[in-house]
Each structure stands twice: as structure tokens, then as C-alpha cells.
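stage 2 :: seqdesign
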């Protein structure tokens, strides 16, 4: 006859595996929830934003909100390259004809140059934010 500790081993192992699996699933979904904010309750995500993480305008850094205000007013912009055509060479945004997207600098405190943060606007007022110099974008819900 086997000692009692050995007969409980499979049960304990299965229990530990189930706990590990639950933590893995819960951890992944919590991270995804933090990364991808959805539209306000009762509001669906616009078609142009589908497939991207989203962020409400109020969830952007203060400097990005200031840049959006300048864009809405038509300037003046602090950087000569603000308003330049964004080529979408990384293909992170939906494909459009050249000249459809324009980019604007979002100042980064402590940076001496333009930094990595940008707002990219589409001709139909689609608004995108990147804080990693075009490696990823979030659709800004305004």
C-alpha cells in the first residue's frame, strides 16, 4: 500500500496546475484590459478604430491634449514638421492614399528633440496617438 502523501500527489498537482492556468488567463486578460480601453458606455467603437487599442481623449497625456487643441484651432504649431504628411510606411494605420494622414508632435517633458510621441490625423478626422515613434498606435476616441 502507498503512503497517504503519495496518493494525494496527483490531486495536488492537478490543483496546482489549475491555479497556475487561472492565474495565466486572469493575468493576460487584465493586461489586455489595461492596454485597450473601449468606447464610452453606450457608444460603439467607430469603424476606423476597429482592430486598434483605443484611448479616450481624456486618457491622453496633458501634452497630447494640448496638441489636439492646437490641431483643432489650426495652429500655430511649435515644430516646423507639425502638419507634415505622415507616410504610414509602417502600415500600422489603415491604408490610404498618400497625403491622407498628417502628423503632429506631442512634446515629451525632458526631451531635447521632438521625442517619440505623435498625434496622426486622417482627413476624415480620425485621430491616432503613438508614444513609441510609430511602432504602435491607439485610436483616440473624441
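stage 2 :: out
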Amino acid at each position: 500500500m502507498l503512503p497517504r502523501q503519495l496518493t494525494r500527489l496527483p490531486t495536488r498537482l492537478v490543483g496546482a496546475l489549475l491555479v497556475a492556468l487561472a492565474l495565466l488567463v486572469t493575468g493576460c486578460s487584465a493586461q489586455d484590459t489595461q492596454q485597450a480601453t473601449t468606447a464610452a458606455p453606450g457608444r460603439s467603437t467607430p469603424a476606423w478604430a476597429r482592430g486598434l487599442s483605443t484611448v479616450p481623449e481624456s486618457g491622453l497625456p496633458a501634452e497630447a491634449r494640448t496638441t489636439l487643441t492646437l490641431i483643432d484651432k489650426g495652429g500655430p504649431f511649435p515644430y516646423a514638421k507639425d502638419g507634415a504628411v505622415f507616410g504610414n510606411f509602417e502600415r500600422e494605420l489603415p491604408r490610404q492614399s498618400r497625403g491622407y494622414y498628417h502628423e503632429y508632435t506631442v512634446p515629451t517633458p525632458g526631451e531635447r528633440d521632438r521625442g517619440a510621441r505623435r498625434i496622426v490625423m486622417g482627413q476624415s478626422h480620425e485621430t491616432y496617438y503613438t508614444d513609441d515613434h510609430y511602432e504602435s498606435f491607439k485610436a483616440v476616441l473624441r
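stage 3 :: structure notes
- The first helix runs from residue 4 to 35.
- Residues 16-39 have pLDDT under 50 and may be disordered.
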